[in-house]
Amino acid sequence: MALWFVVLAGCGGSDGAPDAAEDEIPLQCRNIHVDRLAADWTSVEGQTANPKVRLRVVESADGYQAIYIDGSFVRRTLSGVKRDSDVKFTEVPDAARRRRVAAGQEALVRLYLKPSLKDCALKAFVGTVVDGKESIPPRATEFLPLPEQSGVVFSFDPATEPLYLGRAATDRAVRDAQLSEGPEPVAEMGAVPVGTWSAVEDDGDPSCTYDMDLYFDDLLVTEISPVAAAEPEDGERHWFHQWDAPFSGNHHFEMFRFRTCSDGQRVRIAVAGIDAVLQ
Q1: Strands (E), 136-235
Q2: What order of strands is seen across the sheet that includes strand 164-165?
Q3: How far out from the chain centre does Cα 246 lie?
Q4: Which of 148, 178, 205, 263 is the most buried (most CB within 10 A)?
């Protein structure tokens, strides 16, 4: 995971709206404002960025939406409402997680983002909601915008379809056996076969070209992306790569599937992903 060393420049003023003319505020501080939070953000520890904990904030009709990654590979989608000096975000769970929350097995994430011109940083207070009651720790995590032009590309989007490992990545019969309970998440480290299949008719015009970007542990593998998909067979297109992953432990694989047609635009079709244990 790449790290950046960031100097937190003091901006003066107080939390919330600026108390000085905008041209008097240092450039790096001007987007630390409740009306300008639509960006990618990384947490910082002292003067060191920790992009394993990061946020993507986008504008929505009601205020903001965000994808929050808390240091694991789990993406949490949150809906945010702007207030006078902060934004209140609440997790929007998928159906499976909603059932676990209703059963008392898990809690929803609640997150408050408070811009701080004093510290030239975004303060994030992250807690939980159980039965409508929130628990928010008093200590904030600081966030800064992810540096642009760093050459490092992070994944944010949740997977929209499963990804398969080992024999299931190359053998459709093995893949079919895993459909009901989900892909087997355990594989041997080293050369890890990773793949999925798609219905050709769902992908789009057969005259277009199809390829994928590969992400490992949330980072775009720039030295091998993009990788071409296989030619269709029996109505399915195989998306496959044998990953060099000589690392034991928990890891995350993703394939961002794309279509490029005669207009030259590369359009993303879907994201296939899996949390894996390599041993």
Answers
A1: 141-145, 161-162, 164-165, 186-187, 190-199, 209-216, 219-220, 227-228
A2: 164-165, 190-199, 236-245
A3: 23
A4: 178
**Per-residue pLDDT tens for 174-233?**
999 999 989 999 999 999 999 999 999 999 999 999 999 999 999 999 999 999 999 999
Q: What is the DSSP letter of 176?
A: H
The residue among 235, 231, 229, 223 whose CA lies nearest residue 272 is 229
Confidence of residue 3 (pLDDT cuts 50, 70, 90): very low
Beta strand 186-187 with 266-278: parallel, antiparallel or unpaired? parallel
What is the residue whose two structure tokens read 């934004």? 87
Would you state the structure tokens that stand for residue 95, as one six-digit string?
Answer: 């159906």
**C-alpha separations of 107 from 26, 112, 121, 123 in Å:** 39, 16, 28, 22
For the whole model, what pTM was predicted? 0.84
pLDDT in tens, 82-111: 999 999 999 999 888 899 999 989 999 999
Top-level class of domain 22-145: mainly beta
What per-residue confidence (pLDDT) applies to 32?
Answer: 81
Assess contact for 268 and 211: CB atoms under 8 A. no
Beta bridge partners of 125: 112
Q: CA 198 to CA 244: how far, in whole Å?
A: 23
Q: Domain spans of the chain?
A: 22-145, 161-278
Q: What is the DSSP letter of 158?
A: P
CATH T-level assignment (fold) for domain 161-278: Immunoglobulin-like (2.60.40)
> Are 37 and 57 a contacting pair, CB within 8 Å?
yes
